[in-house]
Design brief:
By secondary structure, this protein is of the alpha/beta class. The chain contains 15 helices and 19 strands. The strands form four sheets. An eight-stranded mixed beta sheet has the order 7-8-10-9-13-17-14-15, with helices on both faces. A six-stranded mixed beta sheet has the order 1-6-5-2-4-3, with helices on both faces. Strands 11-12-16 form a three-stranded mixed beta sheet, with helices on one face. Presumably involved in the processing and regular turnover of intracellular proteins. Catalyzes the removal of unsubstituted N-terminal amino acids from various peptides.
Length: 496
């Protein structure tokens, strides 16, 4: 994993240095200093480079008049202005450039002197976040003989030249660490990240000042979480519910975050095809996003009350597994006909949503789940599905989605769709009408358990894992939802 360190001193005289320059040819203070020391080298290089688009890196190897091994001119800015996301993605591009050049260590100078609408700390902090996220790799199970933690050419260290020092980047580090830790959880194989192991990871948040309570099977039975227990009854591993509370906002009702944590999903008796089943280790990505969001708000000491509740279980076929046709009574008292045991996430969430609503009386409640394959059919791997019973909460989520690049597309709820989950023998059934509106069927099922609380459901099945490189993530777990939720808390739920 690449280290990012802060150096409050001057530019080094040797090694690799990266200096920001404007898209209009303007020089940052660091670039101007090096231009003077090199007899105008930087200005000449910019004139010869032609078009200077945001994100372009101009590589000057053994620059004349300087003792540096390499000087990289990083073009920053657009005629219409840049966003924080633009700067984050710029950090990601920079990491990839360093990798392609096989530069192991580099120093990034401040943007001071460029007019971007951000302070130097804000701009470099955003770039540092993007760099950290793009540099992430899950190498825990790679032995030294196969490359281990490091591959040839991987950047090892990026120094940020900021006079404000390490404290200035503490909030950025908190968010980056939270996303990377969520990615770690999603990447872990199911024989390692069992429901118990996930619960123990949640318990470790107590070291960050988060109040954590772990509910084991006996407690779940006493509470009447029969829908969650029905999902888990086919597995030899017991289920858990982890409750994480961050109290940074006085006596206000909390924002509640709820996550689906199916640590492995075979489909149960309605078993999935063998091809691709190994990917079902990441059916707990919604719970990982909630865990990561709690880590982020605690890490930056958010002035808000946030509660995260995750249901953790395995969905396995066995002689004790629930069967298609079974009827179960949820914690809320509603009876559910189980038509397809592979629609298990909504059963687990039904009890966890009801429990969270009743216990914490939240201001708003958001659940995240890799709930349906249907959302991938609808939206591809470009955006997550958003369902909401509250227009204000939906708009808030859309706003922070655009800011973070963790995009959401609003999909419908409504009485017409509730007909899809009517059962002939119970209050509701756990699937809709075959291939019709499958994502909405899952969402309206969950809606039966949220009451009048402002609520949103994020179906992140398409976004939790990527098979292609993205601006802020390589192939594998994305940590989708952590930055989205953290930005939502920061923008709309923190005390001012």
């Amino acid at each position: 994993m690449m280290e990012i360190k802060v150096e409050p001193g001057r530019l080094p005289e040797r090694g690799t240095v990266i200096v920001p320059v404007g898209h209009d040819g303007a020089l940052s203070a660091a670039a101007a200093g090096l231009d003077g020391a090199s007899g105008g080298l930087i200005r000449r290089a910019l004139e010869a480079a032609g078009e200077k688009k945001h994100g372009r890196v101009i590589d000057l190897f053994l620059p004349s008049g300087l003792m540096l091994e390499r000087l990289l001119l990083l073009v920053v800015g657009k005629p219409e202005g840049v966003s924080r996301l633009d700067l984050e993605q710029l950090g990601g591009k920079l990491v990839q450039k360093l990798k392609s050049l096989q530069v192991r260590e580099a120093h990034l100078a401040s943007i001071e002197g460029l007019e971007l609408g951000f302070s130097p700390v804000e701009a470099i902090g955003a770039m540092a976040l993007g760099a950290q996220l793009r540099a992430y790799r899950f190498t825990k199970y790679r032995t030294a003989a196969e490359g281990g933690d490091e591959e040839e050419g991987e950047p090892a260290r990026l120094w940020l030249l900021l006079p404000e020092g390490e404290a200035a980047l503490a909030p950025v580090r908190a968010v980056a660490d939270a996303v990377c830790r969520a990615r770690d959880l999603v990447s872990e194989p199911a024989n390692v990240l069992t429901p118990k192991a996930f619960a123990e990871a949640c318990a470790d948040l107590a070291d960050m000042g988060v109040e954590v309570e772990i509910l084991a099977r006996d407690a779940l039975e006493e509470l009447g979480m029969r829908a969650l227990l029905a999902v888990a009854q086919g597995s030899a591993l017991p289920p858990y519910v982890a409750v994480m509370r961050w109290q940074g906002g006085g006596s206000e009702a909390p924002l509640a975050l709820v996550g689906k944590g199916i640590c492995f999903d075979t489909g149960g008796i309605s078993i999935k095809p063998a091809q691709g089943m190994e990917e079902m280790k990441w059916d707990m990505a919604g719970a990982a996003a909630v865990y990561g969001a709690m880590l982020a708000v605690a890490g930056r000491k958010a002035r808000a009350n946030v509660v995260g509740v995750v249901g953790l279980a395995e969905n396995m076929p066995s002689g004790t597994a629930q069967r298609p046709g079974d009827v179960i009574r949820s914690m809320a008292g509603k009876t559910i006909e189980v038509v397809n045991t592979d629609a298990e996430g909504r059963l687990l969430l039904a009890d966890v949503l009801h429990y969270t609503k009743e216990r914490f009386k939240p201001r708003a409640m958001i659940d995240l789940a890799t709930l349906t394959g249907a959302v991938i059919v609808a939206l591809g791997h470009e955006q997550a599905g958003l369902f909401a019973n509250d227009e204000s909460l939906a708009q808030q989520l859309q706003t922070v989605a655009e800011e973070t690049g963790e995009l959401l597309w609003r999909l419908p709820l409504g009485k017409a769709y509730e007909k899809h989950i009517r059962s002939d023998i119970a209050d509701i059934k756990n699937v809709g009408r075959g291939r019709e509106a499958g994502s909405t069927a899952g969402a309206v099922f969950l809606q039966q358990f949220v009451g009048d609380v402002p609520w949103a459901h994020l179906d992140i099945a398409a976004m939790a894992w990527t098979s292609r490189d993205q601006p802020l993530a390589g192939k594998g777990a994305t940590g989708f939802g952590v930055r989205l939720l953290d930005r939502l808390v920061a923008r709309y739920f923190e005390a001012r």
